[in-house]
Specification:
By secondary structure, this protein is an all-alpha fold. It has helices at 2-5, 19-30, 39-71, 74-92, 98-102, 104-113, 122-133, 142-167, 175-192, 194-205, 208-213, 223-234, 243-278. It has 3 domains: 1-36, no CATH class; 38-96; 155-278, no CATH class. Helix content is 73%, strand content 0%.
Length: 279
């Protein structure tokens, strides 16, 4: 739904005014399973990505906390929860780790999700794109993806920590607080970074109708060119196309991610403490 609603020059049959209308129209005209296209690609990258995020998050929090405690500055100690989310995304998506093997996934997923997509399977999409556009087609949104990840994860983690301070100040294991905090954090981060996501979608899909309407021949590349093209086609409001679908998608996604993370953190910590006590 997000990919469809971010289309800058959609087919008349693929114009939607709301998420509900888009879902209803796609299911009725294209089949019940159509909204789930690309789910296998998403699942393939979700595990490693979240493992990397949370591992780096815990590592940076511990490193900053240890450094600050040795310094003896209580104000810095209170600020460490805000600092670690800002540093963490940089470690989570360096050029040698995140994009090189995960970035092709969103390209394939979004190409398959577009209206009248000619691709019947993941392998068919990969082969066709590589043959017609070259291997570089999978990395046209490389810079945009990196640029988006840093503010998204920083806003995401900071908002989560802030919400936890408000509704779970003792930082106990509380599934309800983790779900609520995670959902709000995902919503805020998603809304704030939608302009970059719209540009990423344009670079990934190379929307033919949109590019031809602004006399762009060949393929669009580069974040700056994407920003200019989006503005030409949709003005300022064009940067927020699909924001509703993006927020609705991220809220349960981040709520589930945080609740699962906090559960396993609690379970493993509790098990470790019980083991130490028994010794």
């Amino acid at each position: 739904l997000q990919t469809r609603m971010q289309s800058l020059q959609p087919d008349p049959k693929a114009q939607y005014r709301s998420v509900y209308e888009a879902l209803k129209k796609i299911v009725l005209t294209e089949g019940f399973w159509r909204p789930l296209r690309g789910i296998n690609v998403t699942m393939l990258g979700a595990g490693p990505a979240h493992a990397m995020y949370f591992a780096c998050y815990e590592k940076m929090k511990k490193s900053l906390s240890d450094t600050i405690q040795h310094g003896g500055n209580s104000h810095l100690a209170n600020a460490n929860k805000s600092l670690s989310p800002c540093v963490c995304p940089v470690w989570c998506c360096p050029p040698c780790l995140y994009p090189l093997w995960l970035l092709p996934g969103p390209v394939v997923k979004q190409r398959m999700q577009m209206f009248n997509s000619p691709y019947k399977s993941v392998l068919a999409c990969i082969r066709t794109v590589q043959k017609t556009e070259g291997f570089g087609a999978f990395y046209r949104s490389y810079t945009t993806q990196l640029t988006m990840n840093v503010p998204f994860q920083a806003i995401h983690f900071i908002t989560y920590e802030f919400m936890q301070e408000q509704i779970n100040p003792h930082r106990e294991y509380n599934p309800r607080s983790h779900i609520v905090s995670g959902a709000i954090a995902g919503a805020v981060a998603a809304a704030a970074t939608t302009p970059l996501d719209v540009c990423k979608t344009l670079l990934n899909t190379q929307e033919n109708t949109a590019l031809s309407s602004v006399n762009i021949s060949g393929h669009l590349s580069g974040m700056v060119n994407a920003f200019k093209t989006v503005y030409q086609l949709g003005g300022v409001s064009g940067y927020f196309r699909g924001v509703q679908a993006r927020v609705i998608y991220q809220m349960p996604s981040t709520a589930i991610a945080w609740s699962v993370y906090e559960f396993f953190k609690y379970f493993l910590t509790k098990h470790k403490l019980e083991k130490r006590t028994s010794l």
